[in-house]
Amino acid sequence: MTDMDWLDALQRLRGEGAGGVLVTVTEVRGHAPRAPGAKMVVGESQTWDTVGGGNLEATVIERSRELLRSGAAEPESMTFSLNEHATVEHGRQCCGGVVRVLLEPQRARPSVAVFGVGHVGYELARVLSRFPLQLHLVDSRADQLDPDRFADVTNGTAQVHLQHSPVPESTLAELPAGSHVLIMSHDHSEDFILCDAALRRGDLGTVGLIGSSAKWSRFRKRLRDEGHDDAAINQISCPIGVPEIPGKEPAAIAVSVAADLLRVFEGARATGS
Which of 249, 268, 245, 266 is nearest to 257 (CA)? Predict the structure, then answer.
């Protein structure tokens, strides 16, 4: 068990983009190690705080990690009889009471990185900031990342990271595995470098490139020249967004791209991935 209370642990996991399970003692009848309201957090390899130790806690940790591995989203309850006659796997607890606990999976927030926060990137950031995700806003131009410009973005639900990066491909290399990347910088050369870097990672969630079919045709040829095969290149979507949402205004493009990304998130939730 790590020396950190459950609330700090949840915040830490969220900051790391990791999932966990919040465990709460919801009911106690008779004698028990902890009172109703006691909480702990179970991560993939660590735990924080305690709901009473012994067989109760060991079983809760084991089940919580099963929920994490399966990608479960729904909470579930467990009931424990703390007497010498109860069937146990991790040692007996003879307090004499009955304890009921609630396990609430806290799924990892999706990680989204927008490279280039010009007109479209800014509007996209405004939309995405209203959803529970890790939002990385990256630009090679420092003046595009003035905090005052993003006041209505950073006060949303998302955890927003404003990142000035003269070499944005280095920032891309540091993103968590499974991140969703949207490339829309002010410079086609920068866009291409980011596409190449994204394919070389091989562990991203989705990769989208803003641009026309003509731009994508040129990029496909250049990516082949860099050694990428068609199977890899096809991992990049270009143009991006939902075709049914028309309009070339920055806000319209942003809504279209966000809608497509939300569809990806919903598919991941449905499959537990």
Answer: 245
Residue 189 CB contacts under 8 Å (≥ 6 apart), including other chains: none
Summarised one tens digit per residue, pLDDT across range 211-240 is 999 999 999 999 999 999 999 999 999 999
Residue 86 DSSP SS3: coil
Asked if residues 183 and 116 have their Cβ atoms less than 8 Å apart, the reply is yes
Q: At what angle do helices 119-128 and 250-271 cross, to 10 degrees?
A: 40
Q: Which two tokens stand for residue 245?
A: 């949402």
The residue among 106, 104, 48 whose CA lies nearest residue 78 is: 104
CA–CA gap between residue 23 and residue 236 (Å, rounded)? 40
The values of phi and psi at residue 107, to 5°, are -70, 150
CA dihedral sign, ordered 260, 262, 268, 271:
negative
Q: Round the average pLDDT of the chain to a whole number and report it.
A: 90
Contacts with 26 (C-beta within 8 Å, 6 or more apart), sequence order: 36, 77, 100, 101, 102
Task: Provide the 3-class DSSP secondary structure of residue 29.
Answer: strand
From residue 212, give the alpha-carbon distance in Å to each of 25, 206, 229, 252: 55, 18, 21, 16
Q: How far is CA 237 from the centre of its chain?
A: 20
* Sheet (strand 111-115) strand order: 159-164, 134-139, 111-115, 180-183, 207-209, 236-237
Residue 207 amino acid letter: V
Query: Would the CA dihedral through 192, 114, 234, 202 be positive or negative?
Result: positive
Give the pLDDT of residue 249. Answer: 95
157-194 in b/e form (b: 16+ CB < 10 A) is ebbbebeebeebbebbeebbeebbbbbbbeeeebbbbb
For residues 137 and 163, give the distance between their C-alpha atoms in angstroms, rounded to a whole number. Answer: 6
